Amino acid sequence: MSKKQYAVFDIDGVITRRSLLQLTVNELVARGKIDIGPGQNIELMLHNFRQRVSTENYGDYMRKITENLFASMPNGLRVEEYDAIVDIVVKKALADTYVYTRELIATLKRNNFFLIAISGAELKPVSTLSRALGFDAWVGEATFTPDESGKLSGGVQILTQSKAQILQAIVQKFGLQSSGSTAVGDTTSDIEVLAMVESPIVFNPNQELFKTAREKKWMVVLEQKDMVYGMVNENGQYVLKQVNAK
Fold first, then answer.
1. For residue 52, what pLDDT is reported?
2. Which of 42, 71, 76, 58 is nearest to 142 (CA)?
3. Which tens digit of pLDDT belongs to each residue from 188-213?
4. Do the Cβ atoms of 13 and 190 come closer than 8 Å?
5. Angle formed by the axes of helices 36-50 and 20-30, to 10°?
């Protein structure tokens, strides 16, 4: 049996327009589980990390987010409550995906690619969303862990492997081929994964990722509302061309 080609996606800002953790915080506020003030503080922390205003590494950042989140819920959160929140969050996320990546996923599935999601979001929404989209493998780099009473109260397990190490382990486990492989990422943390594949796609990048893409002549795709543009490298310069014109 020939090895499958693979495609690896980040989720927040690549498939979904809003981060899964941000949607989770919003739902907790809507349900009265946390107050709007702490909710806004957590959203600011999320924004600062994604924009690299924060200098914290991912592990420290997620521990701080989790600590602040559950400090606002002194009675903790029952696992069943969290599961119900995740179901709502994923439905909202699926209703607000990017056109380009949604159509790319469908095309890759038709062509029998092995689809992988690697996300910094908590594992439960990552797995629920990935299943709904028909992915073959997924990893959430953080997992909320229940306390002795069975409630979520601030415990979190953080993967210590880098995204590149996680991807390499998945490729080896499922016997995938790198030839023809692709990856889609939007921030600096995706650079190491993009560098591992044959056809990297830089999607709505932050400034640092765009600089790397320009140096390496990687494909860049921009989406604004329902308009998708490809930035094509011609004679050392990027030229903007609409790619979904009807």
1. 62
2. 58
3. 889 999 999 999 999 999 888 999 99
4. no
5. 170
- The whole model's pTM is what? 0.91
Residue appearing with tokens 């989140």:
69
Strand partners, 146: 152
For residue 46, the model assigns a pLDDT of 83
pLDDT, residue 180, reads 94
List the structure tokens of 14.
């690549």
Domain 5-242: CATH superfamily, name plus number: HAD superfamily/HAD-like (3.40.50.1000)
> Can you read off the two tokens belonging to residue 225?
């509302």
Classify strands 199-203 and 77-78 as parallel, antiparallel or unpaired: unpaired
What are the helix (H) ranges across the chain? Answer: 20-30, 36-50, 58-71, 79-94, 99-110, 123-133, 163-174, 191-194, 207-216
Q: Which residues of the chain have pLDDT under 50?
A: 54
Q: Which strands form 227-234's sheet, in the order they lie side by side?
A: 77-78, 151-158, 137-146, 114-122, 5-9, 177-185, 199-203, 219-224, 227-234, 237-242
80 conformational bin, left if phi > 0, alpha if psi -120 to 50, beta if neither:
alpha
CB 74 within 8 A of CB 68: no
Q: For the segment 26-45, what is each residue's pLDDT rounded down to a tens digit?
A: 999 999 999 999 889 888 88
pLDDT at position 56, please? Answer: 64
Cα 73 from Cα 215, distance rounded (Å): 46
